[in-house]
Amino acid sequence: MAGNPERRAALVDAGIEVLAREGARGLTFRAVDAEAGVPVGTASNYFTARDDLLRQIDDRLHLRLAPDPDVLDELMKAPKDRALVVALMHDLINRVTRDRTGYLALLELRLEATRRPGLRESYTKSVRGDLEDGMRFHREAGLPGGDETVAVLYLAMLGLIIEHLTLPGVLEGVLPGVGVPEGLVERIVRVVVPED
Predict the structure, then answer these.
(1) Cα 110 to Cα 15, 38, 106, 183, distances in angstroms
(2) In angstroms, rounded to a whole number, what is the distance separating the alpha carbons of residues 165 and 167?
(3) pTM over cut 0.70
(4) Per residue in 85-110, pLDDT tens?
(5) Cβ-contact 49, 149 below 8 angstroms
(6) Residue 54: which of 128, 131, 117 has the closest Cα?
(7) 10 Å Cβ neighbour count for 100?
(8) Where are the beta strands (DSSP E) in the chain?
(9) FRET partner for 130 with CA separation of 20 to 30 A, picked from 88, 89, 115, 141?
(10) Nearest alpha-carbon partner for 185 in 101, 95, 77
(11) How far lies 23's CA from each of 31, 101, 132, in Å?
C-alpha cells in the first residue's frame, strides 16, 4: 500500500465526492482516480478493496462533519439550558449544510451498509459511537434532559437533516410561519428538551 498521507486524504475526499454524486454503485477506483485528477490505478495502490475505501470515507466524514472545537468552546460558555441546546443544534445544521456533499455521502454509506455485512458492522459501530459520545457530552455538560432526550433529539434532527438536504420542499410551509430548517430546529428542541 502506498504511504503518502496527503495523496490518501485527497483520494478519500474524491471518493466522498463520487459517493455523494453517483452513489455506491458509481464508487469505483477508476472514478476516484478521475475525481482526484490522478493517473488510473492510483486508488488501487492506496486501498485494499472498495470496503477499505468505504471505511476510510466513514472515518474522514466523521472528522469533516465534527464540531469545530473553537466554535464549541464558545457555545459552551452560555448557560446550560434549552437555549444552548438550540444553539448546538443550529451549529449541527450549519455544519451539514456547509458540507452537504459529506452528509449525502454519509447517507449513501448508510444505504450501502444495508447490503454489505462488513460495512454494516463497522458503520453501526461508528454511528453508535457518535450517539453514545453525544449522550456523554450532554450529561457531562449538564444540559437539560438525559440519555432519552438525546436519543429522541438525535432521531428528530436526523429526520430534519435528511429532508433538508434531500427533499427540502417536503418541509416548506408544513408548519405555517416556521422557517426551514432554523424554525424547525427550535420547535424540535422545544418539544424534546425539558426546560430545566
Answers:
(1) 15, 28, 6, 27
(2) 6
(3) yes
(4) 999 999 999 999 999 999 999 999 99
(5) no
(6) 117
(7) 13
(8) none
(9) 115
(10) 95
(11) 11, 11, 28
